[in-house]
Structure formats: C-alpha cells, structure tokens
From TrEMBL:
Its cofactor is pyridoxal 5'-phosphate. The modification N6-(pyridoxal phosphate)lysine is found at residue 272. Belongs to the class-III pyridoxal-phosphate-dependent aminotransferase family. BioA subfamily. Substrate binds at residues 56, 149, 272, 306, 390. Its main location: cytoplasm. NCBIfam families: bioA, PRK05964.1. Its EC number is 2.6.1.62. This is Adenosylmethionine-8-amino-7-oxononanoate aminotransferase. The keyword Protease does not apply. It catalyses: (8S)-8-amino-7-oxononanoate + S-adenosyl-L-methionine = S-adenosyl-4-methylsulfanyl-2-oxobutanoate + (7R,8S)-7,8-diammoniononanoate. It comes from Maricaulis maris. GO terms for molecular function: adenosylmethionine-8-amino-7-oxononanoate transaminase activity; pyridoxal phosphate binding. The lineage of its organism: Bacteria, Pseudomonadati, Pseudomonadota, Alphaproteobacteria, Maricaulales.
Length: 429
C-alpha cells in the first residue's frame, strides 16, 4: 500500500471500477467471466455457472448466438457507428419499421437511445412536449405506481416506488410526482379516479410496467388493471406509457405485455432483450397520434432530444438479428415450456419456512420471502451450487434465457430450491 492508501484504508488502484448498487467497502469481489456460451458463464477459475437471470434480463437467446454475432461482425466491418443527425443507415431504418410492425396499435415512431432509463426520459419528454406543442403548459407531472421501477436517472427515479426509488435519500434532487397504488381492485380504482379528478390537469402522462413490476419486487397484476388505466387515461386525455423494458421481447410469452393484456399504450419503452443481450440499445416507440403533435412547419415543435450514440448501427444490426431469431426459432414456445416447468417445480418452495409467496408468469419464476438477511451469503451459496441467481430485497427469482434446455432448467430450478431451502431452514426455523 502507498502512504495515501494506508491513511484511507484502501488502495484506490484496486477500485477503479465503481460497482453497481454496491457498498464498495463490504461488497464481495466480483467474479471474473472469461467466456459465455448458451446459458453458461465461464469463470476465470474454470467453474461454469448456469445464468438464471439472463444478465439482467437481456440474454434471451443465450450467450454468443452465432446469428447475432455474425450480424454484428458484418456491421462492424461496414459501418460501426455513424451519427443519426442528418445521416441514416439501413439497420436503423429496418429495425424501426420492424419494431413499428411488431408493436400494437399505431405505435409507429421509434426514437432510439442507448439505455432503458434514457428511453423512459424520452417517453416523458414526448408526453410533456406533446402538450406544450398543443399550447397546453403546466402539464409537467406524471402519475406512477407504488412498486414500480423505471430507471436510475433523476427523472426516472421520480417515477419509481418512493422507497425503492430512494425518494427520501434524494429528496430535493428529484421531481415530485403523483404516486398511487395500482388500481388492482374497485376501491383502489375509486381512489385513483379521485386523484385524477383532482390532479389530472397537472399531469402529462401515466407510466406503468405492464403486467409485471420487475425491479420493484416482481409483482404481478392483471389485464383488467391495465384496461382500467387505459380507460382513465382516455377519460382525462393523458398518454399512457408502458415501460416494457423488462416485459418486452417474449418474457411473458408474447412479444409484448401490451399484446398479452390486449391494451395499447400511447408510448412504449423497450431495451434489455432488444439486442438479445449483446449491445446497449433502447427506444421509445410513440403513437402516430402523439407524433402528429410534433408534425409542424414550426421548427420549435421538434422533439428536442438526440443522444450521441442513438441508433448505433452495430446495436441495430444485433437487434435485427435478434428479431430474426424470434421469427426463425420457437422462442415463445420455449417461454411457455419454461412457464410449465416453473408450474411443476416451484410450488415445492411454498412449504419452506419464511416463504410468503411463490408465483410465476412466462419465463419469470419468483419466491418471495419474509426477508432475506445475509443476502451476500445467499448469493455465494447459489454460486457454490453452480447457478447465477441474484436475489434482491426479499425476492429470489429466476429469469433464464429462453433457449435453456429442459435438463438445464430443471438443474437450475432444483439448485435454486436446494439453496433456498437450506438458507430458509437456517434463518426461519
Ligand atoms: C431495467 C429497467 C429500466 C432501466 O433500464 P437501464 O437500461 O438500466 O437504464 C427501466 N425500466 C424497467 C422496467 C427496467 O426493467
């Protein structure tokens, strides 16, 4: 250690990478990955792990699918990157048309960016500016829901669950929004109607993760809840934003949750599995009705946004290749097979001490515990069992790549059950 490092108690050189959501002083060392193929991660020490969470829900076709790798390599040789201001390229043009065709209703206009959080920011800006462009100022707030998660930037944090989104930690730095309970029953629907009657005129939009609230706790709600939101938004003239960053591209067994619920939003955000977990890319997809509010001879009515790397050609090529795979390979059937295996095996966890709920939908399986003390020990136990499973808060969940074989899926679920059982008996008996 240098003298400075000695005084501090750590050597800055050992902490050049500042890690996500981590107390750097106490977090366990990260595991170096040197290879990845199919559903497996290869660690530097030679161990392999079955990835039970698809690298933060992105790697839907497994690692290193040759069709995506080839498409990216070819694009890197042709045009690795070019700005989208004043210039364009085939991968972005084609991807936008394909996303517009896949997305429900008149969601026809695709604004690209590089991360999910930024796509949510763009959706929020589209909503706000669409009112300004129609001469309505003062509509600046959003209605969002408890249990929701929409990203880590300041604006997206403001529409996250107030506790999970650290609204008090960052109080003053983030906008105040209207946060309500999802209208999952008639009483809550009544309360939400009252809120909208009172505050609807200050709102620019309503944002929700359709059918599954992900990072806020893997909570499920039904299509009727979304239909109720759609009706309220129509009644109050508010754009409804579906954040499909987690649910998009098959995770629930349909390409989008909107399709499964039979509800069409006015803006949809996508990212995570968009490139099959290869390169960063995201998009806000807006309806023609909203797009029209920007369509004018007045340059001042243009959407004022433009990320430097938006529509990166290599990332668009990866996304196009990923969409090819949804057409050529039985991805959605694979998701249904995963759902069936969850239904067969996960209920065993219901009888374990400390378990509050066990649920699954599409390729998401959830064991909700009373709490998860000693989370780091639990995480290490999963690694010891040969699986990459990343519990958070009080949630143990599995979201494997859709291509996982029946044998690997059974091994993953059984390992998860074994580790959970041993851990639950230690803490809750
Ligand atoms: C992951 C996620 C985001 C944020 O995406 P980033 O790419 O991490 O910025 C936003 N909304 C939902 C629903 C997500 O799951």
């Amino acid at each position: 250690m240098t003298q400075d490092a000695d005084k501090r108690g750590f050597d800055p050189g050992d902490h050049a990478v500042w890690r996500p959501y981590a107390q750097m002083k106490t977090t366990a060392p990260a595991l170096p990955v040197v290879g990845a193929s199919g559903v497996r991660l290869e660690l530097a020490d030679g161990r392999t792990l079955i990835d039970g969470v698809s690298s933060w829900w992105t790697v839907c076709h497994g690692y290193c699918h040759p069709h995506i790798i080839d498409a990216v390599k070819r694009q890197l040789d042709a045009v690795p990157h070019v700005m989208l201001g004043g210039l364009t390229h085939e991968p972005a043009e084609r991807l936008a048309r394909r996303l517009a065709a896949l997305a429900p209703g008149d969601l026809n206009h695709v604004f690209f960016c590089e991360s999910g959080s930024v796509s949510v920011e763009i959706a929020m800006k589209i909503a706000v500016q669409s009112f300004i462009n129609r001469g309505q100022r003062g509509r600046t707030k959003f209605l969002a829901f408890r249990g929701g998660y929409h990203g880590d930037t300041l604006a997206t944090m403001s529409v996250c669950d107030p506790e999970e989104g650290m609204h008090s930690l960052f109080a003053g730095a983030i906008a105040r929004q209207v946060i309500a309970d999802l209208p999952t029953d008639p009483d809550r629907l009544d309360s939400l109607s009252v809120i909208l009657d009172q505050q609807g005129a200050t709102l620019a939009g309503v944002i929700v993760e359709p059918l599954v609230q992900g990072a806020g706790g893997m909570r499920f709600h039904d299509a009727a809840t979304l239909q109720a939101l759609r009706a309220l938004c129509d009644q109050h003239g508010l754009p409804l934003i579906f954040d499909e960053i987690m649910t998009g591209f098959g995770r629930l067994g349909t390409m989008f949750a909107a399709e499964k619920a039979g509800v069409t939003p006015d803006i949809m955000t996508v990212s995570k599995a968009l490139t099959g977990g290869t390169l960063p890319l995201a998009a806000a997809i807006a309806s023609t009705r909203l797009f029209e509010t920007f369509w004018d001879d007045d340059a001042g009515k243009a959407l004022m946004h433009g990320p430097t790397y938006m529509g990166n050609p290599a990332a668009c090529a990866a996304a196009n290749a990923s969409l090819d795979l949804f057409e050529r390979e039985p991805r959605l059937a694979q998701v249904h097979a995963i759902e069936a295996m969850f239904a067969a095996l996960l209920p065993q966890a219901r009888d374990l001490p400390g378990v509050l709920d066990v649920r699954w939908q599409g390729a998401i399986g959830v064991i909700e515990m009373q709490s998860l003390p000693e989370l780091d020990t639990l995480k290490a136990a999963f690694v010891g069992a040969g699986v990459w499973v990343r519990p958070f808060n009080n949630i143990i969940y599995l979201m494997p790549p859709y291509v996982i074989s029946a044998e690997d899926l059974q091994a993953l679920i059984e390992a998860a059950l074994r580790v959970t059982e041993a851990w639950a008996r230690r803490h809750f008996l």
